[in-house]
């Protein structure tokens, strides 16, 4: 089988990084097309030996991208097109249909009221649903996202849950790495250090982490990621008098100049994800793989599992009147701090989200999609 992955952009982001990791484990020859922004992840994919092309889409309404993509699909003689992220799903489904190629789409970032961090509108939803019908299957990265797709009106039979995956071994705790990373970042050897990972945008609520650390003398904070809120978060840390106890690392693991995410997770003592909502919660699973206690506000990767599968995880903000769970987060961190920093065995949930298992699940979806579309419609209705 030969597959073409189409994605909106290849800057640093969860869906983009997940695609790169997935391609390392899919037993399929894959090429990648990005509609725009061939950033750091494109460079990483090329380093992995993946062919990456930039479609050069100039704007959201660059309709010429559809025939350009359709021609590329035809010339590549691909057996399957797999689209990722909203714009690529819309344009990619249409182009694949024009090229006569089976298409599967993954929904990475569908929230209750947002998609990919932007407010959902009636027209956004309508365009998504109209083009969704052109595909053979829609993959949800969690049962929570699958439920949201059903609520939108996507037929349940077309939805397949394939959770995001992690390379479990890559995040295993390393004492030497911990010491080296703390020294590099100027973190006291015995300090209690809180970690956060993600794009610095309002929905991630990293301001809660800064406020909580400010209320805990002796606690430090490491934030890995970049984004439009970086300046405001730095200003908040300065205003609260904790700039000296907060480390802003920017995008990690992209240039080789600073520590990677696994090194950061080895260096911290507790991980916090304060996002209002998530489609999966990949950073939380990576932290669990590193043996970290986790405090979270929303994480389908945990919430979709049976109760008790993730010891060491504490949820905040789930009760009434918790739009601002800063006090609750502070109390949870104070408890962790007073209990003493310690590593935990990675919970069983981590193995459930191993990237190798995710790749096998996705291959099952591919096989079904190609098999179904290979049968003429008249024969399908008779079977």
3D structure, described in words:
It is a single chain. With 383 residues, the chain is α/β, with parallel strands linked by helices. It has helices at residues 14-23, 40-47, 65-76, 86-99, 122-132, 143-152, 175-185, 206-214, 230-239, 261-267, 282-289, 300-303, 326-339, 348-352, 355-374, 377-382; strands at residues 2-7, 29-34, 51-54, 80-84, 102-107, 114-115, 118-119, 137-140, 159-161, 192-197, 219-224, 246-250, 270-273, 294-296, 313-315. The strands form 3 sheets. It has a 7-stranded parallel beta sheet, sandwiched between helices. Strand 10, helix 8 and strand 11 (219-224) form a beta-alpha-beta unit.
Question: Notable features of this structure?
Answer:
single chain; 383 residues; alpha/beta; seven-stranded parallel sheet; six-stranded parallel sheet; 16 helices; 15 strands; elongated
């Amino acid at each position: 089988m030969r597959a073409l992955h189409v994605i909106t952009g290849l800057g640093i982001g969860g869906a983009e990084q997940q695609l790169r990791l997935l391609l390392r484990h899919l037993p399929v020859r894959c090429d990648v097309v990005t509609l725009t922004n061939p950033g750091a992840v494109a460079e990483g994919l090329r380093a992995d030996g993946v062919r990456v092309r930039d479609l050069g889409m100039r704007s959201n309404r660059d309709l010429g991208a559809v025939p350009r993509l359709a021609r590329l699909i035809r010339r590549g003689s691909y057996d399957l097109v797999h689209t990722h992220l909203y714009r690529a799903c819309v344009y990619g489904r249409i182009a694949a249909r024009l090229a006569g190629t089976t298409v599967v789409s993954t929904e990475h970032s569908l929230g209750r009221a947002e998609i990919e961090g932007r407010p959902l509108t009636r027209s956004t939803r309508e365009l998504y649903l109209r083009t969704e019908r052109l595909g053979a299957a829609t993959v949800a990265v969690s049962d929570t996202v699958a439920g949201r797709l059903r609520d939108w009106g996507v037929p349940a039979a077309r939805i397949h849950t394939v959770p995001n995956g992690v390379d479990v071994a890559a995040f295993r705790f390393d004492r030497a790495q911990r010491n080296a990373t703390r020294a590099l970042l100027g973190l006291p050897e015995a300090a209690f250090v809180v970690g956060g990972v993600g794009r610095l945008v309002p929905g991630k609520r990293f301001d809660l982490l800064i406020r909580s650390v400010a209320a805990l003398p002796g606690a430090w904070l490491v934030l890995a990621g970049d984004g439009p809120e970086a300046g405001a978060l730095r200003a908040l840390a300065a205003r609260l008098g904790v700039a000296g106890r907060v480390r802003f690392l920017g995008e990690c693991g992209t240039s080789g100049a600073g520590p990677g995410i696994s090194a950061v997770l080895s260096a911290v003592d507790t991980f916090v994800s304060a996002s209002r909502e998530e489609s999966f919660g990949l950073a939380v699973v990576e932290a669990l793989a590193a043996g970290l206690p986790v405090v979270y506000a929303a994480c389908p990767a945990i919430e979709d599992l049976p109760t008790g599968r993730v010891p060491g995880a504490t949820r905040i903000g789930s009760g009434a009147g918790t739009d601002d769970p800063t006090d609750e987060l502070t109390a949870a961190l104070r408890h962790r701090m007073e209990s003493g920093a310690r590593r935990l065995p990675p919970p069983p949930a981590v193995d459930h989200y191993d990237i190798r298992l995710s790749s096998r699940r996705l291959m099952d979806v591919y096989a079904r999609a190609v098999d179904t579309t290979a049968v003429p419609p008249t024969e399908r209705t008779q079977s």
